[in-house]
UniProtKB/TrEMBL annotation, chain A:
This is NADH-quinone oxidoreductase subunit K. The chain crosses the membrane at residues 61-82. It is a multi-pass membrane protein. One of its GO terms (biological process) is ATP synthesis coupled electron transport. Its EC number is 7.1.1.-. Belongs to the complex I subunit 4L family. InterPro entries: NADH_UbQ_OxRdtase_chain4L/K, NUOK/Mnh_C1-like. Pfam families: Oxidored_q2 (PF00420). The gene is nuoK.
Automatic annotation (TrEMBL), chain B:
Its main location: membrane. The chain crosses the membrane at residues 25-43, 50-68, 74-93, 113-130, 159-181. It catalyses: a quinone + NADH + 5 H(+)(in) = a quinol + NAD(+) + 4 H(+)(out). This is NADH-quinone oxidoreductase subunit J. InterPro entries: NADH_UbQ/plastoQ_OxRdtase_su6, Nuo/plastoQ_OxRdtase_6_NuoJ. It is an enzyme of class 7 (translocase). Its EC number is 7.1.1.-. It comes from the Bacteria. The keyword NAD applies. The keyword NADP does not apply. NDH-1 shuttles electrons from NADH, via FMN and iron-sulfur (Fe-S) centers, to quinones in the respiratory chain. Couples the redox reaction to proton translocation (for every two electrons transferred, four hydrogen ions are translocated across the cytoplasmic membrane), and thus conserves the redox energy in a proton gradient.
Length: 121, 196
């Protein structure tokens, strides 16, 4: 089999996942897109392991480890999303903006900066 | 002469019913289905349907593993991803009270930027990968490389320490998920007072 087929399929799946992570609003849909990206990496690992005929089968072992870590990640991630939903009443990522910078200004407002400097003095 | 003949017969038996060209054709078809399901997963406006299309995408990847003779990983993929991760995601959708029907605000406002980034990344990566591996073929003849026997031997002969470390990580994740999702005593009393 041509090695390009699995490699290109993995690339396209990864980019689909990138689009999902960037474009989705619901946190659980973002987690689904992360799963797609992880699966693309796994496909690459298996394809290159079979191509190289590695005696240690490092690619397949690493794929199993990635699957287990992805399972742990989805468990913790869903627990966090549920906790956020319980506290805030929403699981939409772009409504969780407590850490954003204030609108209409650069990274540091000059006036604020002066006031803080005066307060410190 | 006899040796090669026996080897060919064994290889044919080991490789199953698909010819090399057949494997390529099936790989391409399943790949198209997988990619289509993945695209529907990230674009559909019905949240539950996204989880169900994710099942199709992950199952397609399991079939691709089978075609690449990585049999054990294919079944692990079916068990863990299709069996438990998607169920967890569906539970998450249920517990966050996701709307069942069409939700118009499934995509955020930076969708064009996301599309641009994804298309640019796909174009660059496909170009590089196709150019780098244009003359490389995977040799799928001979004994399958990912049977349960082979995987078990390498996993418990060469990869034992990472395997055990991974079990500790899974335990930590389990405890962490429980700690995160159980209510504290204070929250319970607040909830009771609020109910009254």
């Amino acid at each position: 089999m041509h090695l390009v087929y699995p490699a290109v399929l993995a690339v396209l799946l990864f980019c689909t996942g990138v689009y999902g992570v960037l474009a989705r609003r619901n946190a659980i849909l973002v987690l689904m897109s992360v799963e797609l990206m992880l699966n693309a990496v796994n496909l690459n690992l298996v394809a290159f392991d079979v191509w190289l005929r590695d005696t240690l089968h490092a690619g397949q072992a690493l794929t199993l480890f990635t699957i287990a870590i992805a399972a742990a990640e989805i468990g913790i991630g869903l627990a966090i999303v549920l906790q956020v939903h319980r506290n805030r009443g929403t699981a939409d990522i772009d409504r969780l903006r407590d850490l954003r910078e204030p609108d209409g200004a650069g990274p540091q407002q000059p006036a604020d900066h002066d006031e803080k400097a005066e307060a410190a003095a | 002469m006899t040796g090669t003949g026996t080897h060919d017969v064994l290889a044919a038996q080991a490789h199953g019913f698909l010819s090399p060209t057949g494997v390529e054709i099936v790989f391409l078809l399943v790949g198209v289905v997988t990619l289509g399901a993945a695209i529907v997963t990230v674009t559909t406006r019905q949240l539950v349907h996204a989880a169900l299309w994710l099942v199709v995408a992950l199952g397609g990847i399991a079939v691709e593993y089978l075609l690449l003779t990585a049999e054990f990983i294919a079944w692990v993929q079916v068990l863990i991803y299709v069996g438990s991760v998607v169920v967890l995601l569906l539970f998450g959708l249920m517990l966050t009270k996701a709307p069942i029907g069409r939700s118009p605000d499934a995509d955020s406002a930076n969708r064009p930027a996301a599309l641009a980034v994804a298309v640019a990344a796909a174009a660059a990566l496909v170009w590089v990968v196709a150019d780098a591996f244009r003359t490389t073929w995977i040799d799928l003849r001979g004994a399958p490389q990912g049977t349960t026997k082979v995987s078990g031997e390498i996993l418990f002969r060469h990869w034992v320490l990472p395997f055990e470390a991974l079990s500790v990580l899974l335990l930590a994740a389990l405890v962490g998920a429980i700690v995160l999702s159980r209510r504290t005593e204070r929250e319970n009393t607040e909830r009771k007072n609020g109910a009254r």
